[in-house]
């Protein structure tokens, strides 16, 4: 092809690139069957320079068709049980009837690579650049329940429809077709829509499209509503018997919403909404459509996280602000999603950055004094906390910092389906928005970021674009080099962490050496203060290791890095150098846990209450440095007093975490801890342990595969009981333990290999756990334990160091027994599923040679399970004894609160035996930290 031909072709492609695809839909809603019957015409235009033989389509309604679709797998990974255990009629699906061309000739089609929600349809003839092809589809959509994604059919008979019809995928040198994973990231080319939908007469339709007509059927039982819209990338419909939506003019736009208005007067709602839309039009540019619609479903899928989600009676924000911030979040999101055509799975960070930056700017402009805890910041007692000092916008930095401190932060440029849920929903968007504020401060001109955003929006509205286009615009406006922002801040999860290493005073200057504790090129600001007045501000860039800068010494009393806290640095505690005081920062005592305040060295105090049967309730004074966000070094000193034992008790622990890599061996944790409590009436134990733990994880942080190697040394000292003396009250055990786990809702596999060495014994054991949830909702839990003594000279100690069949003696003091020495009474019926894992108390409860057991249970109905255990107990000089038991398990909260009712065992039919109530066993977890993990596992 000649050069002239290339130019002509390129010009032709450019001219048709703005040509619209068109979609015409005739649909009939059957509310009783919760089904849509659809006849659809799709005119697809090839705007690429390639010839296409097939066109890919997204059939996301079919994502709900089974538990094994990509959407079903995603729900399982996130521990969302409601989809897996749903009834078949609650899920949805697409039933394809015919696919033809305009000549009614059937077209070949199939599921792309076997994926349930992506289709390919073969063209009648090769589709050349600039040409169009018409596809005629006839199909039915079974609408799913709204309890999965907040879209679908509702219990009250209403319908919220999203991703409800088939749409073409985007082709730009390759097909951008991916599955629905509940990420709200549909990517489809713009199209002109004409929709005629038949619904029962009592229903009404709300949408962003323009209504053309409404025609009542002859029998007056149904009506057909016609709506149309141009340049749309998505169509959401809300079909309701009694409309929950309200609307009013907002400048040149018609605003429609059903977001909870907290019973605000219409005038207040109108003022708030007009202010938001005027703000966005000023910051971005005109909205290209006549209507903007935001729904409660949209908002709840991406809310403003924080205290505003509390019930109304507890919510600390004024109703007007509460309503306005919700509308700001939802309107800004829709404004950007409907007009900026960015691939939302692979390049969404730029839209997130715009979204959060605009929200921060709005709050700064209209609510500059709003605090993160709202009206609570003025309450006596609460206002003494540092949390009461934080502005509303500080929540965005804290959201990102939480994940950075957990070593779970991920690059902004990572695809959405590779992010852990907390990063996808919260932390990455917050980091992106805070990053724009960081840039704004670095550029030292508040107008540059604003201008770059406006230029980016106006130049790319309703056009395919990307973050690369924004980088070009910002670079052209910036007087400084900003490559570090895109290369380090966006494309990696490298963290900001600086310190003032040293300061040399000269006659009229200061030589300040700043250390970059991380490997990046990101800049930091250095402030010089005289008392509380800012004397100078200097930006320091390209710090590789250390860098020395010279600043004027105008009687400076303090140097501070990032004094105004505009930079998302993960550790601000070492940013101070005080010339007028022996300490860089004053010491501060706080009652109860607080947000970290880098201006002070903080020590927190909190009273604690615990219980065991020997000490009764214990009152402790806990002194610690742990803030709401994790720290690498944490200590906890808790002197206590037992109200029943009348003894001084307590514990202390010191831990240091160090991240050494992103995956593989990624973290090492060093620790030392000691405790002193009662282990029997009027008898104390003292335990001192030192440990080092090695943590391993895969590169994919969404994977639940975890490995841990723990090496520790435990010293136990027990007070002697003169009436019943033990031979070995004091002992030392070296313990090496390797743990592997890989779990999600459907499958769980975990195993532990444990080695213990003491003066009088050595033992080796392994525990393997497996759980499987089948498609028919049947669950099977299997557990194997095998342990053997390598040598054992502990006969004088009885069975204290032996393997236990049903209730370990816990000589390492690892378990939270309510009463560890009790053999009668309610607390003696508490079990820990360790070692043998039996529930019945049998004739051979211990093994001093080897023990092998197999435990199994399966559900009968909901949380009622049948369990069975079998095993071999081998003691010295005695042949192995076969043991078994079985019964009913009530798993009220799996692994946290369960009750076991023995039925039959080696003891016979236990149910009919005397004192059966004393044979019932239970598991109970009272540790708040352990219980919190039950609710946070789907987020991390």
Automatic annotation (TrEMBL):
Q: Which UniProt keywords apply?
A: Hydrolase, Metalloprotease, Protease, Signal
Q: Which GO terms describe its molecular function?
A: metallopeptidase activity
The answer to keyword Repeat applying to this record is no
Q: Where is the signal peptide?
A: 1-19
| The keyword Protease is assigned to this record | yes
Q: Could you list the residue ranges forming a coiled coil in this record?
A: none
The UniProt entry, under SUPFAM superfamilies, shows: Metalloproteases ('zincins'), catalytic domain
Task: Quote the protein name from its UniProt record.
Answer: Metalloprotease
Q: Could you read off the lineage of the organism from its UniProt record?
A: Bacteria, Pseudomonadati, Bacteroidota, Flavobacteriia, Flavobacteriales
